[in-house]
């Protein structure tokens, strides 16, 4: 390489000569900024939070950086920046996020208002890790916390006033040292004022029964007036359980695990419930279903995932409870109940009695899925009920080979809004179901899925 | 052009560099210039300082004999970035120089160098606060006309002042 004016031999090491006194503009063009910011991995389940925070920081550097970085941050990652943080990075991230939010507020950026849900590991704010020989009491979220960590969390809460809180409650062993119990009580009491804004509360309890927790139950009571969405995992302590029952404004609930009877009791209190997802309840699932009775007049969407029913007695108990609920759910749009897996492995709790109840009372039904189950055929259904009255039914899935052609045929012919039909029944050219589908303009894919082209 | 085997580049202050054209076969800007204006004496690279151009040419020299297919798009996710020990000098340079090299790589349209410098910039931003990033890269404040023509941040904050 030949260079005139300042001769420097070619080298593979960069020269150390100084820059000119007035270097050219250092405004990186948008495409290069995009190139840089695109390198942050937002898909990593472990480290995406750090990438989001890096992008947030970059977006606060200057206007051009904001315009390049902001579109790359998914809104969902700002709305709920932490979920299920299981590492020591949780506290570091809290401090960083707190600092970033403070800066964004100084700059007049709207990030604080965009955040709506904060994830809090309660036992991470008890001072020091629980030092005990009983490893079963340890949690990866039992971390040493400094006052700055706590300050960072409350700074975040002050700046964002979140409408959603996700609390990882953690185990509260009886043999916690007193200072740790006091720290927990103090921490929960500090959270108390923020619950007045919360309409979406997620509580993750330990999988085993806990002693009565007056501080946590007080926290739930503080949100009673505003709570409309609740997610529960694990087993609530008795006092929190009672407090949850009193949250009568709940409209949407997800309950994972826990005891079916306790779930049923909670559901009894939620009389305005519209949407419910129950998954893997322990004990008699009919107890949980019976709890929905209180909300019959408002329920629109019911999803209950459990196990296959064993024996006639259990099947009868479950379908009877379900029939009782469904027969009074006039607003029901969606019902999926049973062992919900891929269609060929599923087991539905819907039998002919439940189906009849759906046909008689649920005129808003939009989707009907009939997978394998006990006592489900649909035979003579329309002799009893008259004709299908599901004017809003858009999707019919019949994976149960025992369901008779006649049932499907009538639904296809008489439900005007139907857009998609999935049928497992064997259909030759003379099949009434096939004729009905073709008459209504459905086109099959050869694998049992029929759609109306205009749909 | 008197010597088709070589190309002469002129920087913002008039410093000239004459290097084998083959060094710059990954530079789209240079290749386009050779096709359209190759009969001229020298190619001007107005916005690049001699120091930075020398570094860019060093990179090109190091990679002149690479047989890998030229990178069409530095952001191509199907071609993951792999650190090359020959580029360690670029990874160790000060922040302000890194910024200059990033811009030079963009001006000369050398995707491999764009990718290297972008990767390095991204890794330096890791974990930093906005103030720290500003101190590192000191991006220019915007010109008045840019502020006037761009309302996006103005909508965001009443004062519309994000750049410090």
From TrEMBL, chain A:
InterPro entries: F-box-like_dom_sf (IPR036047), F-box_dom (IPR001810), LRR_dom_sf (IPR032675). Residues 1-27 are annotated as: Disordered. Residues 27-70 form the F-box domain. This is F-box domain-containing protein. It comes from Jimgerdemannia flammicorona.
TrEMBL record, chain B:
InterPro entries: SKP1, SKP1-like_dim_sf, SKP1/BTB/POZ_sf, Skp1_comp_dimer, Skp1_comp_POZ. Residues 79-93 have a biased composition (Basic and acidic residues). Keywords: Ubl conjugation pathway. Residues 112-146 form the SKP1 component dimerisation domain. Pfam families: Skp1, Skp1_POZ. One of its GO terms (biological process) is protein ubiquitination. The keyword Endoplasmic reticulum does not apply. This is E3 ubiquitin ligase complex SCF subunit. Residues 68-93, 123-164 are annotated as: Disordered. Residues 7-64 form the SKP1 component POZ domain. It comes from Jimgerdemannia flammicorona. Component of the SCF (SKP1-CUL1-F-box protein) E3 ubiquitin ligase complexes. Residues 141-158 have a biased composition (Acidic residues). Essential component of the SCF (SKP1-CUL1-F-box protein) E3 ubiquitin ligase complexes, which mediate the ubiquitination and subsequent proteasomal degradation of target proteins. It comes from the Eukaryota. The lineage of its organism: Eukaryota, Fungi, Fungi incertae sedis, Mucoromycota, Mucoromycotina. PANTHER family: SKP1 (PTHR11165). Pathway: Protein modification; protein ubiquitination. Belongs to the SKP1 family.
